[in-house]
Structure formats: C-alpha cells, structure tokens
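Please, structure for the following, as tokens.
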Amino acid sequence: MELSQKFQKLFTRDATESLWEHACRWTHPVSSRRILGTIDRTKLLKLREHYPYRSEARKINAYEDADYWVGVNVKRAQDLWLDRSPPLQILDLGCGPGYFLYLCRLFGHEGLGLDPDDEPFFRGTTNLFGINRIIARISAQRPLPDLGKKFDLVTGHRVCFHRIARDENGKWLEWTEGDWKFFIHDVRTRFLKPDGRLLLEFNRRQDGSSFFTPGLRAFFESQGARIVRWKALLATDPNQRPRFKRI
C-alpha cells in the first residue's frame, strides 16, 4: 500500500509539472512554422543523401526531419524562457545537429556548441545552421576544454555522455555519483556566470523507467538541483534554488 501511494504521488507530481509546462508554452506561443521558413529543407535532404544513416542508428534520429526537431527545440526554448529573456551566452553540450542553438540565435542569444566529431551529418547541419562548435568529448573525471569565457546557461539535451559501455547483458554502465560531482563542479566553477544555470535533460532508461532512480534523485538534489520530470536544473551556487525563467 505504501509503495502504491508513493507511485501515485510521483505520477501526480509529474502530471502537474507537465500541465504547468504546457500552460507556460500556451501563454507565450512561438510559431514553429515561421522558424521552419528560415531553414533550407532542400539542403537538409541533400545532406542526408550525402551522409546516409549508419546501420545502427535509431529511427528517432532522423535529424533531417526539421518539422519534428524544430518542434522539440521550440519547447525546450520555451521551458527555459529563452523566447522572452534578454540576450544570453549559451553553451550546449552535445549540440548534435545544432537545432537548439539555431533557435537560440533566432531568439537573440549567442550560442556555442561542444560535441565530438563522430557524426558527419552533424558536421553538415551545424555548418548549414552557422553554429559555432568546439570539437571535444566529455569523459568522466576529466575537465572540459578551456573555452576562455563563462556562460549564462549551459545545457545538455538527451544526455548520453555519462554512458561508458555496455555490459555482457547489454545494460549501460554509467557514471558514478563521484563522476557526476566532478562534472557539475567543473561546469559551475569554470563555465557558469555567478547567476548562471546548468540544465541537463535525460532519456528514460531501457526499461522505460525514469533516469532519476531514488539514489540519483537524492544525489542531484544534494547538489542543489531542481528536478522536473526528466530534467535537472542547477544554479552556479549549490545553495541557491534555480529557476527556469530569467525575468
């Protein structure tokens, strides 16, 4: 009975947070169609022809589907209030094809991406979108490269750099709490301005459960994180409770 009550409480919290996100987006609408009108779809399709899918790539990673990815990143921008905040300096870790930073620029922000150069298609799309990108890999217990500046916002969407390797059963081996503590401290001390924010967005686990196991949730909260569904928001100061909005 106690477990059932805890699950019901969690579901209610997630449902309430989802409703709040939808309400905030509805009160400040953004036209995805107008943004799509600024993208040369023909060039995107030609890039895909030039760089075909890898055999192991998941279908969801059809990054030439501008309609889908612009929609996804409009929601990300709205949830961070980037469509209505003053100009910000933004660092996107694992920037991928560059859609998020492209939208940030349309909203008046200055962005920089960081990603390994493993996917030739991303090389093409970031060039198409005019994204400034640093080629680097994020590894456990290793500082990020010096970028010579600090940022108002550091983001990581669909985070997977914490996955180290698969075991014999196909399950991912992941960073330890010590690895996460090192990473968060590195970002806070070297890349965030005094009133900056770090936003990490995670995928669900292979079994469909939340990334935030009870242990990981407790750890991130001990670091001052505000956890909303699959996202963790942290402030520069671990004793400060961060907010999604900046105005």
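The two ends are 43 Å apart (CA to CA). Residues 151 and 193 are 6 Å apart (CA to CA).
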